[in-house]
Amino acid sequence: MDIHLPLALPPWTTQGKKIESMVRKAIYTFQMLEGSQKISIALSGGKDSLTLLFLLKALSGHGFPELEIHAINVDGEFSCGAGIQTSYLKKVCEKLDVPLHVLTSTQKRETLSCYSCSRERRKLLFDKAKELNAPTIAFGHHRDDSIQTLLMNLLHKGEFAANQPKIEMQHYGVTIIRPMIYVSEKEIERFADYYGFRRITCQCPVGQNSMRKKTDQLLALLEENFPNARTNLSQAGLNYGSDKALNP
Question: Strand 100-104 and strand 68-75: pairing?
Fold first, then answer.
């Protein structure tokens, strides 16, 4: 392994085996790869999306059909994500034999907002995935992302809805899957620390004070009195959450 290019490859450590088991469970439970042997990964270069890339590459052909994986990265002056240089991502993808497609966001500081940035990034991702004929798109959203979404929807809209593990976006012609829906952020952090790719956090000036950040701080306060808050909220979101997103 190139010491300047951290890669996470099996055989796994105990932590890696645990994450793989949860990813396999999510893929099987929600039939995420049904009819999809060619998939795209939204690759920001942060710990979450890189963990997803390493896991899906390792799972390909092992209990699942051989997958043709395409990585899609959205670059730009200001774009939500880890701020990783595309040259680094190209080297990682070359080592894994995964084609990397780099797109450019038009976001500028004076008009930057989470909403506009997210919409543009998703349109770029969706359009490229369809162009590649790989319309099943894997996102690196984990358990804690889903919990934050649940609380934000509940407190802002009065709607009990977390991230859906699999969504067929009929209007856009793509399917979103979230194979790490059972995996906690701390588990991903430990995995990334061990393999040496947890190096950079989100560089977005807006994201540092986003509502998602504030919601995570609220969760930390809840845990002081309810230690199982995250586990219970995650399970409740999967069991009872709104399926409104399934009919976009």
Answer: parallel
